[in-house]
Design brief:
This protein is mostly beta strands. Helices cover about 15% and strands about 40% of the residues.
Length: about 270
């Protein structure tokens, strides 16, 4: 469903704009619920209800990303909501063709030695994760053009102390109307798949290595939305991963603003 996209590397930014000394404190933490799902999974609509309830409860403190990994038979068939980066994350966590769905993960952290946790455990595990509030800062700005579907992204990050991280940016699309097997055995042909992972910049779901600290670091990228994605339903999710064990330190989700092609600046404070 995706076509190739245009991604350019970091643009040259003047030194006085790129390195800005700041006095900062730890930021409020945003957590990520990765939901592994598939249109052939009859119980997955129930897990979507759980993730939607948690999103309503926690608001901006929670980002939900639904991944349809190609390696699992629940995603395989005539209707394709998969993307390579979803499969890469799934396999990295030890997913196989026999992994039961629905399942998920919070912040790419192992729970009791396992990455995959049943949706009935998401609420309690997330409540535990919410006790950790210290995190780096993420600042995301987006300039969009509705006709060309081009997006200019600027991502800025700081931390109270020097920190080696991996910066990733994911593209998700919300409310994709499609087919879903339901718990009653019927097939819903007008089901809305939520928060579906569609792409990762540079085709790397865990991003690229950067060093952050009290001096602000930023990166600028040009991106073209893939054909087939409805721009109004698209979201960009910026993530900072721990360089060593790849758990998520901070995240921020922003939708596109096509109002007057103005810069939309979002900050996690």
């Amino acid at each position: 469903m995706l076509v190739s996209v245009l991604i350019c590397g970091c643009e040259v930014i003047p030194q006085d704009e790129r390195l800005i000394p700041m006095t900062i404190q730890s930021a409020e933490r945003t957590h990520v619920l990765v939901e592994y799902t598939g249109f052939r999974c009859v119980n997955c609509p129930e897990s979507e209800k759980t993730s939607s309830t948690l999103k309503q409860m926690y608001g901006d403190q929670l980002v939900v990303v639904a991944m349809h990994p190609k390696s699992n038979p629940f995603t395989q068939g005539n209707f394709d909501y998969t993307c390579p980066e979803a499969d890469e994350c799934y396999l990295m966590m030890g997913g196989t063709a026999t992994t039961s769905f629905p399942t998920g993960n919070i912040d790419f952290v192992k729970n009791d030695g396992r990455y995959f946790i049943d949706h009935l455990e998401w609420t309690s595990k997330l409540q535990t994760a919410m006790h950790s509030t210290s995190a780096p800062h993420l600042h995301v700005a987006a300039v969009t053009d509705k006709q060309s579907r081009d997006v200019e992204l600027t991502i800025r990050a700081t931390a109270p102390q020097p920190l080696d991280v991996r910066l990733a940016v994911w593209l998700t699309e919300d409310s994709i109307k499609g087919v879903q097997a339901m718990p009653d055995g019927k097939v819903n042909t007008a089901y809305y798949h939520r928060h579906v992972l569609r792409d990762a910049l540079n085709d790397q779901p865990l991003g690229w290595e950067i060093s952050i600290g009290p001096v602000e670091q930023n990166a600028a990228y040009h991106y073209s939305l893939p054909d087939g994605c409805e721009a109004e339903k698209c979201r960009f999710v910026a993530l900072l991963f721990d360089k060593n064990d790849s758990h998520i330190l901070q995240a921020y989700e922003t939708k596109l603003d096509f109002g007057n092609n103005v810069v939309a600046v979002h900050q996690r404070r």
